[in-house]
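Query structure, 275 tokens:
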């Protein structure tokens, strides 16, 4: 009790001020006079403005951390956009190939190009799929842009394919617009040659060249390229037709192997009739 008395005596001024302040606030709250209401309104507005002003201070110090979080989020979103873009491009390639699949009952095996030989007359690519994936010699390889070549050798896990830039490959082809037939060959350089096209036949620059139904190995309707020039060869009955390939072999990274085998009965019959 004595300690309480000493405490009250020591802080009597503060206690008196506190009691008077409490009584004043109580009287102000209970008083309904217009002047008192005005004072209360001004006090409430002043306290609110003070709180808003003081509220800016901690937010200011948090801006740097918030900015760092937003930057990290931006990097994450940018990475996600890049992955979605790659997925979209892959989806577009697959959908374009599905258009080919709808025209014939073909299966497809995806493969990556793990080796290239583009400096010789017999240019080839090596694929990371082979016998275990159902690949066999003479199966065509394509990309989303068109025909790339055909497989010539396989092992358990790998395959080697001739590309169109190979002097040993031949493809039965036709002009999509005029249905003029010919044989695609490579004679060196950056263009293919559409051979056995008579001077009288309708071939023009810009014509699309596709595989024809006369091929024993390649399904019909696969895009090969576009005619870049067509002119009559001097002293010959045939035209000199150059074709720009649809596939950019210098950028070839992925291919699809069409898992269709040549009709052995047809090949045997045609071979027998040539003997």
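Result returned for the query:
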């Amino acid at each position: 009790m004595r300690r309480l008395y000493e405490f009250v005596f020591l802080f009597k001024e503060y206690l008196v001020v506190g009691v008077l302040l409490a009584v004043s606030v109580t009287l102000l709250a209970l008083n309904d006079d217009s002047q008192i209401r005005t004072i209360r309104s001004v006090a409430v507005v002043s306290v609110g403005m003070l709180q808003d002003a003081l509220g800016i201070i901690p937010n200011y110090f948090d801006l740097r951390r918030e900015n760092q979080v937003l930057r990290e989020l931006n990097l994450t979103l940018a990475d996600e956009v890049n992955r979605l873009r790659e997925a979209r491009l892959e989806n577009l390639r697959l959908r374009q190939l599905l258009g080919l699949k709808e025209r014939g009952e073909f299966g497809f095996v995806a493969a990556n190009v793990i080796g290239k030989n583009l400096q010789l007359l017999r240019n080839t690519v090596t694929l990371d799929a082979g016998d275990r994936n159902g690949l066999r010699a003479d199966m065509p390889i394509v990309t989303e842009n068109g025909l790339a070549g055909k497989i010539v050798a396989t092992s358990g896990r790998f395959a080697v394919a001739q590309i169109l830039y190979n002097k040993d490959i031949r493809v039965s082809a036709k002009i999509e617009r005029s249905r003029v037939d010919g044989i695609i060959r490579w004679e060196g350089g950056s263009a293919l040659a559409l051979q056995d096209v008579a001077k009288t036949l309708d071939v023009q620059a810009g014509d699309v060249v596709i595989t024809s139904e006369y091929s024993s190995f390649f399904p019909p309707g696969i895009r090969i390229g576009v005619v870049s020039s067509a002119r009559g060869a001097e002293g010959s009955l045939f035209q000199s037709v150059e074709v720009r390939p649809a596939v950019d072999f210098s950028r070839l990274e992925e291919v699809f192997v069409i898992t269709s085998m040549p009709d052995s009965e047809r090949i045997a019959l045609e071979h027998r009739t040539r003997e």
